[in-house]
Every structure is written in structure tokens, then in C-alpha cells.
Amino acid sequence: MSSKTIFITGASSGIGLATPVLFYTEGWNVVAAMRSLDKASTELTSLDTSRLLITECDVLNLPSIQAAVAATMERFGKVNWVVNNAGFALLGVFEATPREKVLEQINTNVIGELNGRDKSLPPPFTSLSNLRKNSAVGIITISSGAGIYSLPMGSLYSSSKYTVEGFTEALSYELASQNISTKLVIPHGGISQTSLMQLSMQESSQVDAEVNKLYKEYIGKTMATFTRMVNAITTSSHDVAKTIYEAATDGTDKFRYFIGDDYRGSLTAKYGEKGTKTDEEYIASMRKYFD
């Protein structure tokens, strides 16, 4: 059995739920962190607590992070891998999106992820100096295909994920010099068994009705395309969890782990079969697909 410990944020559903269950099955000590313990799944609560800690952790609330870290240290003494998974997707026309929703999207997906790197916070994972001290292996951040290519009505979500991609890539060079591994797992093409799309639609309903009227035809066509995309999804949360496990255990310095069907060819549309496609060709193919 492994003596390693993994800390996973956003562990109440979807990828965040499948990941702690998988690592627990593989014999790891697991910290499943979520914003509210009321959302804890029976898949977690039914497991033996000798290797599992379910803890409250709001990634936008520093005292909440500190409390989760303290509970982790008391139970397991260290963390080897941290999985930054907490986040949500806001789907809708940017012009109709209230300022508070813009801030919520960016704060949750970007600032919340950065809070996991704040040097002022206690060990094991929120201080990079303590990552070294605890002989931690590193950090895995869950990104998205939306951080590689943008889709219509996803401007804010893509903005947050592009930021995470750029930040994590730059940080990976720095932390490699300190023997701290930094990796990105990038689901693309959609994930089944997740409430991301439902949440997106719920959030997008809280926008300016008058502006939405102007975009009514465009929204209708775009949502019809999204519906076809959702119906074609074959990649599960468990598939992503297995990729996260690979990233944590393969012993390589590989940085990006893509997981998904890419059935409509978004990655190929952007890069080409050999990465030779121009940006103009990529934008033209995306516009054609959603026309």
C-alpha cells in the first residue's frame, strides 16, 4: 500500500469526486476538500476514514484553506501531490454578463488556484518552501481544452483557463529548479458524469435579458451545437481521474496530459496534424463549425 498523500480540491462531484475514490482504491492517503461538507458524496463517506479525510475548503477563503491544511497535517503529516480541481464554467454572451459574475468566474478559477501557492500560508501545499520541506512531489492542475482553444459564449471560462495554462507553464520552469513537479491535466471535448454544463446554463440565466434578446438567434444556434457536442461525449470523470493518477505516478517530467475524444477536431483544427496550421485557418474552421 502507498504511504503517499494526495490533496484534491473541488471533491464533491465529477472529476473531483472520481479522483479521490481512485487514489483511495490505489492505497493512497486521500484528502477530499470541498466548499461544503453537505455536498460530500456517499461514494466518499462510505469509505474507511483511516486513509481518508473529508474536509471543508473554500479556495477563495484563506482561513478555510488554513483550517484544511491544519487538519491534513494533523491526520497525515504531509502531502505529496496537490490536485487543483475546484472551479466552474460560466456560459453566456459576454455583453450580457453582470460584473459580479465576471469577478466570480475569474476569482474562482484563477485566484482560487493561485491561493494554493500563497507563501504566507502554512504547510504542506500552500507554501512552496514547505513543499520542499515535506519532500512533496508536486502540483497537478486541472485545466481544460477551453484553455487551448476558445468556444463561443465561453469567453470568461476560456479567459480563466488560458490564464491558468500560462501561469502554470511559467511556474513549471521555476519549480523544476527546486525539484517540485508541476503538471497540467487537460480534459477536452467534454466530460460525462459532470454537472459542468448544467451549472453553466444555470449561471448564464442570471444575465441581462434585454441584451440576450439581441443575441437570441445566435444563442439558439450556438446552444444547438453545444447540445450535439454534449450528446457525443464519451470521456468520463473516471477517465480523467486515471489520467491524473498517471501524471502523479509515471515518474516523468511530462507537463501536459490531454484526455478526451476531440471528436470535432478542435486540437487538430488549431494545430494541424503536424502543428503547421496557421491561426487564420484555425479561426476560420471554428467559425464555420458554429455557423
| Helicity range | 40-55%
Describe the strand arrangement of the main beta sheet, using strand numbers: 3-2-1-4-5-6-7
Q: Write the element-wise H/E pattern from the N-terminal end onward.
A: EHEHEHEHHEHEHHHHEHH
Low-confidence stretches: 119-126
- In the CATH hierarchy, the third-tier topology is known as Rossmann fold
Radius of gyration: 19 Å
Secondary-structure-based class equals alpha/beta
**CA distance, first residue to last residue:** 53 Å
Give the CATH H-level superfamily: NAD(P)-binding Rossmann-like Domain
Architecture in CATH?
3-Layer(aba) Sandwich
Query: Largest sheet at a glance?
Result: 7 strands, parallel
- Note the overall shape: globular
- For the record, the CATH class is Alpha Beta
Mean pLDDT: 81
How many individual β-strands? Answer: 7
Subunit organisation of the chains? single chain
Family: Belongs to the short-chain dehydrogenases/reductases (SDR) family.
InterPro entries: NAD(P)-bd_dom_sf (IPR036291), SDR_fam (IPR002347), SDR_oxidoreductase (IPR051911)
Pfam families: adh_short
GO molecular function: oxidoreductase activity
Name its key features.
7-stranded parallel sheet; alpha/beta; SDR_oxidoreductase; oxidoreductase; oxidoreductase activity; 291 residues; 12 helices; NAD(P)-bd_dom_sf; 47% helix; Rossmann fold
